[in-house]
Amino acid sequence: MSEGNRVWRFGDAVNTDDILPGKYAPLMVGEEVFHRYAFAHLRPEFAAGVEPGDVLVGGRNWGLGSSREYAPQALKRLGVGAIVARSFARIHYRNLLNLGIPAFAAPDLVDALNDGDRVRLEMTRGCIVLLGDDATEQSLELPPVPAFLREVLSEGSVLAFFKRHGRFPGEDATSRERPG
Amino acid sequence: MSPVPADGAAARWPSTLPAEPGCDVRGLTLAERILSVKAGRRVRAGEVVVVPVDQVMMVDSIAPSALRIVERELGGRIQHPERVSVVIDHVAPASNVEVATTQKRVREVARDQGLRLFDVGRGICHQVLMEEGLARPGWVVVGSDSHSTTYGAVCAFGTGMGATDIALAMATGRTWLRVPETVRVQLTGERPPGVAAKDVALEIVRRLTADGATYASIEILGAEAFTPGERMTLANLAVEAGAKVGLVAPDEALRRRYDVPAWLQVDGTATVASSLDIDLAALGPVLSVPFQVDNVHPVREHLGVHVDQVFVGTCTNGRLEDLHEVANVVRGRTVAEGTRLLVIPASSRVLQDALADGTVATLVAAGASIGVPGCGPCMGRHMGVLAPGEVCVSTSNRNFIGRMGSPEAEIYLASPAVAAASALAGRIALPEPRSVEGTPA
């Protein structure tokens, strides 16, 4: 068994129809099975091959298009550990964080990670460890997560946060950081 | 709420907003002004605000999960049922038992909770909300559909969100937003004949690119000569440049249709992130070429490409004036052998008006199929999905791989007139120049 988790490398402008085509929405195929169609067009081998904790790496404008939360929901069900991209589209980024899927805009990391690489995600240390063939390890620093988003991620989701605190993340804060 | 005619001639929608802003809004953009008044304090781009929501909109594909979240996670109570609209438009009428069962449940919850329900055939969410006065100048409207930017046509802060945010908005009556920076788009010059609002909107997306306005408010100035429907097309496509909202500057035409608070106006001294000037006189008909919306090119560069299906409809271009454009091109002629022309009015009101003025008869005589008002095949679920290798010219808003069915099909986005000309020719074509200005049927 390989150590760590796999990197799934994607290109620029991966849209929500790539992540979950509209014809496989839960409304169409059922609430229980829609996640099986993640990347059905773009990478048909993905849904069956992805393992919990795997890291998706994309280029610019990851997640452009629809507001469909079932696209990131499918990735969550499949256990995706984090998404690293050069940049994210607004609604999708917000959906990812609402669901508690760590999303990092980190161009340097995108350049350092290739399809099939093995990595270990260390959220508390704020890094991704790239595992080499010869047991070498290279630690790649993740960009810092804004404080109020760290709260959300530690609670698991925005809903969990809201239920525990009775307020929205960032509410009454004078933060200038972006929730989306 | 009494209905107002689509042309807005008879009456104005009243405002529910304070006449006075309640804080100093000088030097603020339209987005900052709306969110400042809502938040009750002066806020600037980059700040996080929690604001009351004037209208929550959800469609049939998202309503089940949003309602489930409210019920199971948030105590089941909807704060202001009268401010929630449910529109069954994405798969309407239902295409299979799964869909029918889900929609049945959504209807039951809407009835039990006292939500406003627009059922099968009433039309596309954004069109319906505008017709019903459920998006008004200065309102904050959150919708479970990315093209909720459409409400910016009347300078409502309309933005798309996912099921969790929609559920929270229903349960609390509020939402959290980061106040967006502003990209100011100034339209200048006169639009030549044959240049549609769609061409202008696609030019904005081309110039900004698909992520050029990410997180931002696009503030559109100089649209005074655009009809209410054309403004919806402009605001609708703002999201294709990544924008959070697309706000068309309030003008006299808007004030004739709505009460607009005096504070809701463009401030030339406001700080904007960037500006873009677009000379309308320099524009021509364009296509968005597969597989990205910002891949915009002149129609003349793609003339002659064989077309299997032409789709006229959607929240982008399914209004009466769009159907008129198509009718003016196809009147007295017939769709090419081997090409299908599918026309889906954006709402039941559009369909009624198009029936009354003879537009539907003209379209059907030319060989068009008329569909039930709704989203149709726009997102590849039913009523006109594409086979591998097929080419569609569509008046919709996205041409992504697999968007309308097979990942091996291709979608070119175009104005209604270019779509109609392509249907007649059976290949991508430009409409013949008209000697006199065409009139509906």
Secondary structure: elements and pairs:
The complex is a heterodimer of chains A (180) and B (441).
Chain A (H helix, E strand, L loop, with lengths): L4 E5 L6 H4 L6 H4 L16 H4 L5 E4 L11 H8 L4 E4 L4 H10 L3 E3 L1 H6 L5 E5 L4 E5 L5 E5 L5 H9 L2 H8 L15
Parallel strand pairs in A: 1-2, 2-3, 3-4
Antiparallel strand pairs in A: 1-5, 5-6, 6-7
Helix pairs in contact in A: 7-8
Chain B lengths: L29 H10 L8 E5 L2 E5 L3 H11 L10 E4 L9 H17 L2 E3 L6 H7 L8 E4 L13 E4 L2 H10 L1 E5 L3 E7 L8 H12 L8 E5 L6 H9 L8 E4 L3 H6 L16 E6 L6 E3 L7 E3 L10 E4 L1 H4 L2 H11 L9 E4 L4 H9 L2 H7 L2 E3 L20 E4 L15 E4 L2 H10 L16
Parallel strand pairs in B: 2-3, 2-5, 3-4, 5-6, 8-9, 8-11, 9-10, 14-15, 14-17, 15-16, 17-18
Antiparallel strand pairs in B: 1-7, 12-13
Helix pairs in contact in B: 2-5, 6-7, 10-12, 10-13
Question: What attributes does this structure have?
Answer:
heterodimer, A: alpha/beta, Aconitase, domain 4, 7-stranded mixed beta sheet, 29% helix, B: 441 residues, alpha/beta, Aconitase, domain 3, 2 domains, 5-stranded parallel beta sheet, 17% strand, disordered N terminus
What structural class is derived from the secondary structure elements of chain B? alpha/beta
Average pLDDT, all residues of chain B = 95
Q: Assign the CATH architecture of the largest domain in chain B.
A: 2-Layer Sandwich
How many helical elements of chain A?
A: 8
CATH third-level topology of one domain in chain A: Aconitase, domain 4
| Fourth-tier CATH superfamily name of the largest domain in chain B | Aconitase, domain 3
Helix content of chain B: 25-40%
CATH class of one domain in chain A: Alpha Beta
